[in-house]
């Protein structure tokens, strides 16, 4: 039986835990709103980019000698996976979900006899993959540490991937990240970046679509649009992941706050019962002592 | 007759409204987007997008390169970076230009794609200085 003093200490410590988790929840809620606005603001650009690429891609379908970023290297041997996680923990299953998805993908690709290489973004995923698959890792990239993500960070990563693709260091590139569905749920998603996945059934649409003129030329346009698209897709992914992280943290901290409240109620009840038992015992001792006289 | 013009940078939508005409700094020369124009995609150089309403320029934006997608009814400008003209700073752009010129001088003269990229950036910085009302220093 825990003594009254022990119980008091436990209640005190759970109370301060609850204060911390509820503060973290508030902070996450404020950050979430900002991250969500930014993710939404970035969508029109990415959408317009996709539309332009779809138009351009439809015109070049089936041609040979297409840029590597569009058509890939023609092989399917070396896969580069880019898992996007956060730099900080305490966000529920946010990072674990991406890590699990990555691990499953690695297992699946390796079972098919393919070579897998990893380029994790974010400290949490990097740490985990470093432990499990250190021989597959090309490099690890730190996230922004919860601060605002500048476009230049995505641009740098995009340039790096484009350079790797040109050198033929991989055949297929896939991003693994948490897609922001709503505050409560983020779905770990794998999105193929290279070769570019164009909408397959736009033949009907492109038959009616007006014939575009290109300036300077289709090839020049493609060769500057493709690297840009890579950067934009990565940027959009990083922003979604950042919004998802705050959402996941908010939900996790909300649960933790509620659990702490329940634990305090339970401990307080136990404390009061123990106190009452002690008093009753003392009374019984006094009364029986008095009767014995 | 009007055309829907959208100016979008990776961070946000800067402008989205129907205007009479938009003059866009294309890589090979300025191009006007007007209603019922044949669809066209083009690369942009650093320069100023001018939006006309009732025959006068009502809005000006500086874009530092990018793409434009024009159709008969719509014109989408995907800018690498876009700023309203009033928010430009000459000093800022001049500092950037000086940095670019230094790295151009230091760059490997055999690496043509990298030089092209630097050239494009310098052109954009010069256009920015000009747009902001400053004097572009002629590069040696």
TrEMBL record, chain A:
Keyword Transport set for record: yes
KW Cell membrane (keyword) present: yes
Chief place of localization: membrane
GO BP field: proton motive force-driven plasma membrane ATP synthesis
InterPro entries in UniProt: ATP_synth_F1_ATPase_gsu, ATP_synth_F1_gsu, ATP_synth_F1_gsu_CS
Keywords assigned: ATP synthesis, Cell membrane, CF(1), Hydrogen ion transport, Ion transport, Membrane, Transport
Location in or out of the cell: Cell membrane; Membrane
UniProt-listed PROSITE patterns: ATPASE_GAMMA
GO CC annotations, alphabetized: plasma membrane; proton-transporting ATP synthase complex
Domain of life where this protein originates: Bacteria
GO molecular function terms listed in the Swiss-Prot or TrEMBL record: ATP binding; proton-transporting ATP synthase activity, rotational mechanism
Membrane protein topology class: Peripheral membrane protein
Name of one Pfam family that matches: ATP-synt
Subunit structure and binding partners: F-type ATPases have 2 components, CF(1) - the catalytic core - and CF(0) - the membrane proton channel. CF(1) has five subunits: alpha(3), beta(3), gamma(1), delta(1), epsilon(1). CF(0) has three main subunits: a, b and c.
Annotated NCBIfam families: ATPsyn_F1gamma, PRK05621.1-4
Role of this protein: Produces ATP from ADP in the presence of a proton gradient across the membrane. The gamma chain is believed to be important in regulating ATPase activity and the flow of protons through the CF(0) complex.
Family from the record: Belongs to the ATPase gamma chain family.
Name assigned to this protein: ATP synthase gamma chain
Automatic annotation (TrEMBL), chain B:
Source organism, top-level taxon: Bacteria
Coiled-coil regions listed in the entry: 90-135
Main location: membrane
Subcellular location: Cell membrane; Endomembrane system
GO MF term set: ATP binding; proton-transporting ATP synthase activity, rotational mechanism
Keyword Endoplasmic reticulum: no
Ion transport among keywords: yes
Record key words, sorted: ATP synthesis, Cell membrane, CF(1), Coiled coil, Hydrogen ion transport, Ion transport, Membrane, Transport
Membrane-topology annotation of the record: Peripheral membrane protein
GO cellular component: endomembrane system; plasma membrane; proton-transporting ATP synthase complex
Role of this protein: Produces ATP from ADP in the presence of a proton gradient across the membrane.
Subunit-structure text: F-type ATPases have 2 components, CF(1) - the catalytic core - and CF(0) - the membrane proton channel. CF(1) has five subunits: alpha(3), beta(3), gamma(1), delta(1), epsilon(1). CF(0) has three main subunits: a, b and c.
Family as reported in the entry's similarity comment: Belongs to the ATPase epsilon chain family.
Family annotation (NCBIfam families): ATP_synt_epsi (TIGR01216)
Protein name: ATP synthase epsilon chain
């Amino acid at each position: 039986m825990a003594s009254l003093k022990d119980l008091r200490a436990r209640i005190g410590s759970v109370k301060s835990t609850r204060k911390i988790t509820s503060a973290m929840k508030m902070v996450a809620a404020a950050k979430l709103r900002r991250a969500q606005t930014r993710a939404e603001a970035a969508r029109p650009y990415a959408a317009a980019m996709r539309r332009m690429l779809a138009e351009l891609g439809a015109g070049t379908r089936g041609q040979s000698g297409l840029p590597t970023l569009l058509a890939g290297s023609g092989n399917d041997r070396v896969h580069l996976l880019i898992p996007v996680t956060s730099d900080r923990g305490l966000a529920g299953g946010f990072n674990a979900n991406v890590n699990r998805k990555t691990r499953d993908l690695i297992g699946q690709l390796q079972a098919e006899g393919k070579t897998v290489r990893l380029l994790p973004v974010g400290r949490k995923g990097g740490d985990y993959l470093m432990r499990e698959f250190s021989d597959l890792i090309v490099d690890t990239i730190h996230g922004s540490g919860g601060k605002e993500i500048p476009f230049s960070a995505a641009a740098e990563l995009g340039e790096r991937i484009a350079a790797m693709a040109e050198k033929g260091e991989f055949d297929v590139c896939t991003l693994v990240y948490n897609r922001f569905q709503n505050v409560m749920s983020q779905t770990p998603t794998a999105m193929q970046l290279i070769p570019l996945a164009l909408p397959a059934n736009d033949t009907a649409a492109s038959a009616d679509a007006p014939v575009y003129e290109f300036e300077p030329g289709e090839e020049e346009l493609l060769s500057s649009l493709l690297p840009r698209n890579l950067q934009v897709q990565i940027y959009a992914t990083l922003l979604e992941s950042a919004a998802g992280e705050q959402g996941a943290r908010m939900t996790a901290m909300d649960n933790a706050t509620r659990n702490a409240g329940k634990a305090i109620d339970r401990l307080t009840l136990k404390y009061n019962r123990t106190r009452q038992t002690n008093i009753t015992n003392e009374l019984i001792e006094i009364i029986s002592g008095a009767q014995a006289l | 007759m009007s055309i829907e013009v959208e100016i979008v940078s990776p961070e946000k939508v800067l402008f989205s409204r129907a205007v009479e005409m938009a003059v866009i700094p294309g890589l090979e020369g300025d191009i006007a987007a007007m209603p019922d124009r044949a669809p066209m995609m083009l690369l942009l150089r650093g320069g100023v997008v001018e939006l006309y309403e009732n025959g006068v320029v009502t809005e000006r934006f500086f874009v530092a390169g990018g793409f434009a997608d024009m159709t008969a009814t719509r014109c989408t400008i995907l800018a690498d970076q876009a700023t309203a003209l009033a928010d430009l700073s000459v000093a800022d752009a001049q500092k950037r230009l000086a940095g670019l010129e230094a790295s151009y001088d230091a760059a490997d003269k055999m690496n043509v794609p990298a030089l092209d990229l630097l050239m494009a950036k310098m052109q954009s910085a010069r256009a920015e200085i000009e747009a902001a009302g400053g004097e572009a220093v002629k590069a040696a």
